[in-house]
Amino acid sequence: MTSQGPSEEELRAAYEAELKRLRVEDVLVQTVVSLLNLGGRKAGLAPGTEDERDPEQLRLAIEGARALMPLVEPVLGAEAAQVREILSQLQMTYAQTRSGQPPAQEGGAPTAEPAQDPSQPEAPGPAQQSGRLWIPGQ
Asked: Domain residue spans in the chain?
């Protein structure tokens, strides 16, 4: 005997319930995080993504994240500094790419050190340490 999945009406009701629960701020934050993670791949910073380098895609990811930052910074609170740091690293990598310098590979960070926010610890963030996707609050 095969089990039947949810009906179209049940799926629609579940979708409506999810939309009711979802906040625009959450989608904006997730969009910025997705752009930064994709930008890191298009920069070739994560191990194994060197063949994915695409400066134009990196530029678009940076510009998209920059455009959304004023909207998500209040939602991110203290984590906004970490997001700005990651964006800064991508911008530095893009500038190096445009000037003909190869992007740094060690630790997934550009060779030049971006300005350090004095309120933040000097250790690399979770994305740099693990090479995995970073999600705010986790």
From this structure: 22-103
Q: Where are the alpha helices (DSSP H) in 1-137?
A: 8-21, 24-42, 55-76, 80-98, 126-130
CA–CA distance, 70 with 93 (Å, rounded to integer): 22
Torsion sign, CA atoms 28, 40, 136, 119: negative
What is the reported pLDDT for 100?
A: 77
Task: Give the span between the Cα atoms of 132 and 126, in whole angstroms.
Answer: 8
Q: How far apart are CA 66 and CA 62, in angstroms?
A: 6
Q: In Å, how far from its chain's centre is CA 49? A: 15
Is pTM, for the whole model, over 0.70? Answer: no
